[in-house]
């Protein structure tokens, strides 16, 4: 590209829209949106990738004026937010399951600030969330997303993203699937907890001197942790399948 043409209006606007496409990615996608990453680092990463992909930036397809520029920036943010929402719905399956497990184990009040989202979350959900985050790194999701944005430049023009009806349909389906699959993941611990409650209830009927608080709860927590350890690999495998399914859907946006 000729140096003298870099600062033309269409190139400057294209650079700005490309920056917003990457910025929305770092704001919404699970790995990049981690709260422990400072906002200035995310902005610097977006600026760096904008420079890297600037030579393959497609030509603008709209007339440059204030209204079109505002709509184009909004479209780029919506593109990144749709990507982040689809992936977050799949990722939140594991945190929902962790909340259910924490409740039956009696750990629902034992919560702390989650370093990824910055909100209070039960400790089992935090543990599973960190394990899920490491699973995403083993899947190379960060590289997937960079390659996805690279491919989107040739398929979706800058400022030309429009939300279609099937996107809303998938988001509704993914939201309902989050609760269903999350319950399936937590079911082994839930089933064991319900079974132990029945057994402890029968013991208290036959042995009134049985102290549930002193004996029953530690046994229930120990059994739940044992089942959690045994099924942890299966949980991460299910999460991997859900994330791959969500990423495959993102390719239909092209």
Mean pLDDT: 81
Q: What general outline do the C-alpha atoms trace?
A: elongated
Query: Strand order within the widest sheet?
Result: 1-2
Radius of gyration: 23 Å
Provide the low-confidence segments as ranges. Answer: none
What's the count of strands? 2
First-to-last CA distance = 27 Å
Number of helices: 7
Write down the domain tally: 1
Largest sheet: 2 strands, antiparallel
- Give, in order, the helices and strands: HHHEEHHHH
Helix content: over 70%
In terms of DSSP E residues, the strand content is: under 5%
Structural class: mainly alpha
Description:
The protein is an all-alpha fold and 254 residues long. It contains seven helices and two strands; from the N terminus they run αααββαααα. The protein has helices spanning 9-28, 39-53, 66-105, 123-138, 141-155, 165-206, 212-250; strands at 111-113, 120-122. It has a two-stranded antiparallel ribbon. Strand 1 and strand 2 form a beta hairpin. The model has no long low-confidence stretch (mean pLDDT 81).
